[in-house]
Amino acid sequence: MFSQALQDIAKPSYLGILGELKRSGGLAIPELSSLLEMSYMGVKQHCIKLEELGYVKAWRVPRVQVGRPQKLYKLTKKADPLFPTGGVGLVLSLLEGVRMSFGDSAPEKLLYHYFEKERDLWLKAVRPGKSLVEKATRFADARTRSGHFCHCHYNVKEGFFIEEYHHPLHEVFVKYPNLMAMETRMMEQALGTQVDRDVRKGSHGVKCTIYRIGTLG
């Protein structure tokens, strides 16, 4: 199913639209046109095609003022395979078996070794970066390639941070919340600086995980 999905939406413009909808939760064509720097009609045609393929659906939000309701697009369940969850059901089942066989702390000990390996991969990815901003950007790119969905941002008030809208192991984190702190520590080791993790609304008003990079270099 995943390979079929990739065949359906192989165009970069399709991927751009799907990415912005994932990040925002729903957008109108004028907003997508502005974000993607594409023509209104171009975006409209792509959205119509993606709706025909079943990856997006349109719905109308009633306007406060007189006029037609605003038409927005959002992702459907068919788009879920584009943001993989890493076989979470199998992972949770295996971790429960480990817990029953070796005790309550066994799953987290096992996952600690997993995050150690992840840290080593992140270190390899960020090592060529000459500044912390470049390292953090390389880190975000590496996570995106591994099935996450994140973007780097900077503003004067908060500094440099990463917004993450999809985590393949989210359901595992819900079951084992201590893993959040464990993963964050591994991020700090890979980047060589403090990383503060928070869950709140991101730049597009949709709930996401924020990783704030402590010190820029």
Q: Outline of this structure?
A:
With 217 residues, the chain is α+β, with helices and mostly antiparallel strands. The chain has 9 helices and 6 strands; from the N terminus they run H-H-H-H-E-E-H-H-H-E-E-H-H-E-E. It is globular, with a radius of gyration of 20 Å.
User: Average pLDDT, to the nearest integer?
Assistant: 83
Structural class: alpha+beta
How many E-type strands? 6
In quaternary terms, these chains amount to single chain
Radius of gyration: 20 Å
Q: For the report, how would you describe the main beta sheet? A: 4 strands, antiparallel
Percent of residues in helices comes to 40-55%
Low-confidence stretches: none
Our measurement of the CA-to-CA distance between the termini, rounded to an integer number of angstroms, reads 43 Å
How many DSSP H or I helices?
9
N-to-C order of helices and strands: HHHHEEHHHEEHHEE
Instruction: Give the overall silhouette.
Output: globular
Provide the β-strand percentage band. Answer: 15-25%
Q: Biggest sheet: strands side by side, in what order?
A: 3-4-6-5
Characteristic terms for this protein:
217 residues, alpha+beta, 4-stranded antiparallel sheet, two-stranded antiparallel ribbon, 9 helices, 52% helix, 19% strand, globular
